[in-house]
Amino acid sequence: MSVRLDKYLAGLGVGTRSEVKKKVRAGQVTVNGVSAVRPEMKIDETADEVCVNGEKLTYARFAYYLLHKPAGCVCAVSDRVHRTVLDYLPDTVRGGLFPVGRLDLDTEGLLLLTDDGALAHALLSPAKHVKKTYYVKVDGEVTDEEACLFRRGIDIGDDKPTLPAELVILSGGRASEAELTISEGRYHQVKRMFAAVGKEVVYLKRIAMGPLVLPEDLKPGQYRPLTKEERAALGR
Ligand code: URA
User: Fold this and answer.
1) How far apart are the CA of 227 and the centre of ligand 1, in A?
2) Which residues contact 128 (CB under 8 A, 6 or more apart)?
3) How many alpha carbons lie under 13 Å from residue 150 in its C-beta half-sphere?
4) How far is the CA of 107 from the centre of ligand 1 (A)?
5) Is 43 touching ligand 1 by the criterion CB < 6 Å?
6) pLDDT reported for residue 134
7) How far is it, in rounded angstroms, from Cα 200 to Cα 188?
């Protein structure tokens, strides 16, 4: 498929459209061994060999990005009222992407954006029990008894109790901090689990999903392409 060189490079996360243009003009990019001079030149992304500073880029059939979702935006591709998670990516990379799963409007944290439907299905399928870990701030003292109840599975008003979940208490007091790992993705699950023991979640951030971990240097609203290692961990 024929595509503009600068669009191709930006889509692979080499830089923004203007950054990659600069790289091309600075002679850092070669196409089939020949220095590229025009960012707008057309390349065949499946056949041409493109190198940046001598390093070969591999043709990526699908795109994978990690976004640190900030509070106040919705996990949807469009919305009439709120910003969407895709609004944090430039137009050059967002085409065809969708969020893998949902976080609430006020929840922050790790969100995978991709156009790989098979991977999304595998990560979200209830049968796969993919683990998700949340950092939680709760109004009130979280107790070992509650950790025990969560470990056994708790009734949150659905047909079945939740699957066993791991609660690690980080700090106690009038406001507690904890990490909760669940292996389902029910609607408002974390908030409903704490509500079932009479506690209110006042802050929620997803810090891991399957093999992916929220990088500490990725601030709310920032995104980056998955690394080779992260893709390999997902089998991609
Ligand atoms: N559980 C919740 O209650 N909210 C989220 O956004 C994610 C998990």
Assistant:
1) 26
2) 122
3) 27
4) 7
5) no
6) 98
7) 12
Report the alpha-carbon distance of residue 119 to residue 123 in Å, rounded. 6
pLDDT in tens, 155-208: 999 999 999 999 999 998 889 999 999 999 999 999 999 999 999 999 999 999
For the chain, first and last CA: distance in Å? 21
Token pair listed for 199: 């506690």
φ, ψ dihedrals at 52, nearest 5°: -115, 120
Helix (H, G, I), strand (E, B) or coil at 171: strand
Query: Which residues, in sequence order, are CB contacts of 227 under 8 Å at separation 6+?
Result: none
- Verdict on whether the full-model pTM lies above 0.70: yes
Domains of the chain and any CATH numbers:
2-56 (3.10.290.10), 64-126+212-233 (3.30.70.580), 132-209 (3.30.70.1560)
| 165 Cβ closer than 6 Å to some ligand 1 atom | no
Report in angstroms the alpha-carbon separations of 43 from 8, 62, 72, 83, 149: 8, 18, 39, 34, 58
159 catalytic, yes or no?
Answer: no
Which pLDDT belongs to residue 228? 86
pLDDT at 45 over 90: no
pLDDT digit string (tens) for 96-139? 999 999 999 999 999 999 999 999 999 999 999 999 999 999 99
Residue in 104, 144, 155, 159 annotated catalytic: 104
**Using a 6 Å cutoff on CB, does residue 131 contact ligand 1?**
no
